[in-house]
């Protein structure tokens, strides 16, 4: 069994700070990031990226966009009607 590596990451020409590492850091630190968040983080210095993640309280909150769930509710209602109709049909044919 190999020992886990706890060595400090230092970006270099052979091991650069890039989008792949930024995505990995966001995944390990929380819930990942959008492509824009990954690109923005990868566009900063590694130390700046760490500072942004560790001091997230300094980041201004933004309003979450409203989501219209009407199409999902309509699909659910249609599915429910189909299931109810099938249940009535099955009971009419002697199936339970």
Please, could you describe this protein's structure?
There is one protein chain. With 96 residues, the chain is mainly α. The protein has two domains: 9-58, no CATH class; 67-96. 53% of the residues lie in helices and 0% in strands. It has helices spanning 19-29, 35-42, 46-54, 70-92. Helix 1 packs across helix 2. It is elongated. It starts with 18 loop residues before the first helix and ends with a helix. The model has no long low-confidence stretch (mean pLDDT 89).
SSE order and pairing:
Blueprint: H1 19-29, H2 35-42, H3 46-54, H4 70-92
Helix pairs in contact: 1-2
Q: How is the main sheet built?
A: none
The SSE order reads HHHH
* Integer count of domains: 2
Q: Spans with pLDDT under 50 lasting ≥5 residues? A: none
Count of beta strands: 0
Kindly report the average pLDDT value. 89
| Outline | elongated
Radius of gyration: 25 Å
The first-to-last residue Cα distance is 56 Å
Structural class: mainly alpha
The percentage of residues in β strands lies in under 5%
Helical content (DSSP H or I, runs of 4+) = 40-55%
Tally of helical segments: 4
